[in-house]
Hints:
By secondary structure, the protein is of the alpha/beta class. Helix content is 41%, strand content 17%.
Amino acid sequence: MNSVNKTLYIPLYGKSYVSKKGIFLNDKKAEDIWEAEGFELKGKSKSKWLAYYMGIRCAVFDEWLKQQMEDDPNAVVIHIGCGMDGRVIRVGTENHKWYDVDFSEVIEERNRYYAESDNYKMIAGDARDCGWLTAIKEKETAIVVMEGVSMYLTVDEMRSLTDSLCAHFEKLALLVDCYTSFAVKMSKRRNPVNDVGVTEVYGIDNPHAYHGEKLAYVREHTMVPQKYIDELKGLERFVFAKLYAGGFSTKLYRLYEYQKN
């Protein structure tokens, strides 16, 4: 895998780690894949604090997605940059059509661990080239999640992606996490993705940067809700709250919701 694709092992490790500890997520699939793959992480990418953050971020995405699926039972679900994530298992399709999208070599790896069904399909595609959208025949409503993806795309690439999604679907809900420009500067020295060879990332300071003609910014979500922080105990809870949930954290990382109606 290339360096960007290898970043998928960082959240996979985090989900496996917290699942084994019985906090934030129940993700046996992440545990099984991590144990089978044996990918070696080093440095900051294997920090327990980062694992906690990855686990909570994932839980927040899952929670939002479940609510959106309840609100619109006819929508299709699209997970762009799915990596090896088992969100389709954790959330369940609930009879929604679900599409996981990632680079062809990632999908090839996924095929070793996930099986397609009538409601679940995997699509090989690049977020920067939306030709893969032709594989999705539904065009009415889509719920799209992009977790840990936008930082590898320029603003123009993100705008092109959202424009393509809006052109394909009549109605759209999107949840995406983003680096800030400050995080981009900091990442040259302290970003865990450096440990798997990634040196170029991108960020925004204004959520309206991803606006298109038809896509509108709705709201910002907290990345680390207090209820998840409270699952940690004692000193760990105190340290995590200070380092990953305080004001400094929001200077680095934001979570935005968008809609096309």
